[in-house]
Here is the input.
Amino acid sequence: MERTWKRTGDEVAAAAERLRPARRMVVFTGAGVSTDSGIPDFRSPDGIWRRYDPRQFTYQRYLSDPGARRQSWRLRREFQAMRPRPNAAHLACVRLAEAGRLQAVLTQNIDGLHGDAGLDPELLCELHGNGRFVACLSCGDRMPMEAAVARVDAGEEDPACRRCGGILKATTVSFGQALPRAVWERAEAMAASCDAFLAVGSSLVVYPAARLPELAIQVGATLLILNREPTPLDPLAHLTLRGECGVLLPALVDALLEAA
Here is the structure.
């Protein structure tokens, strides 16, 4: 397949021209979409996993090790203090939706910023859940994350469910935990019926989510990868934009909608 490394405004315009016929676009977003909102990513040299051991955050360890749960709650407190806001990349997805060009946003992010930006919930598929809520793994009781973090701030290092005493966990998918079947099936259906698939801000190394751009290619969709660093799927892409999501995605949408 053709591969082009896109950097200049003219090259963004060329990418938009290639995508111009698309009417069922899927935007697949990863951590790089939220870095301009002040949320650090996971795998970059200054990412979260440089300060926290990801092995501490497996689902089985969370269930069995109170120490791992305490560490997880400390990380949740850190996220809760950030108060991030949507950035230009999130708003660009909304503009695609308003133009009738967006079939879905499939996101690996758990920050809820696509919803904050005004994206219709019917167009949003949060593959790894949403970190703004907590649920009991025994009885299913659910509460806002801020309520659980307030208990941690008050001295409960590993707060238990007040209804049944069970383990509380963010409504997110951890390492070793299966994606909800209905969520995954919906994401597969969107990828299998799109005519353009934009993988934006994702390292494309986390499976099964990284299978989605591969699925889109199999059905003949145009694949564009926009990321700061190379990804393992770059050789499969028709187009590759290298740079910051908060700059290049809005520029691409500008050019795409102007050409419509």
